[in-house]
Sequence to fold (135 residues):
Amino acid sequence: MLTMGNRPAELAALLQSVARQDLPAARVVVVGNGSPLPELPAGVDGVELAENLGVSGGRNVAIAYLRRCGDVDVVVDLDDDGLLVDTDVFSKLAAMYAADPALVWCRSGSPTSAGRRSGVMCRGCGRRTRCAVVR
Fold:
């Protein structure tokens, strides 16, 4: 998850929506993109960056962190204004990955029926957020 530290309530809600998934996350990391992180729940890793590296830079830091951990096959990339509105988002992604071992990227689109099925929504703009599946 990526945060600039200016939406603590939204970040807390996002973390709660991740915790409610029917398939638990193997690892959760929050990157403070040029901002200090709030106290994070147990089991959530935090990485504070001294400067804002931009969206891509912050995401790259998160992916590099997860690679060093070595125990993550699927990455769900979320911003702090995102929300997993359904509790089966991770299990749906896992099923998609299991059905197609060559899958390396999935993206829920604009608010279409496919986007609604993904259960991932940006509360700020109402658009669906990207879900990256990395092998």
Summary: Helices lie at 8-19, 54-69, 89-99, 113-118. The longest strand covers residues 28-32. Residues 109-135 have pLDDT under 50 and may be disordered.
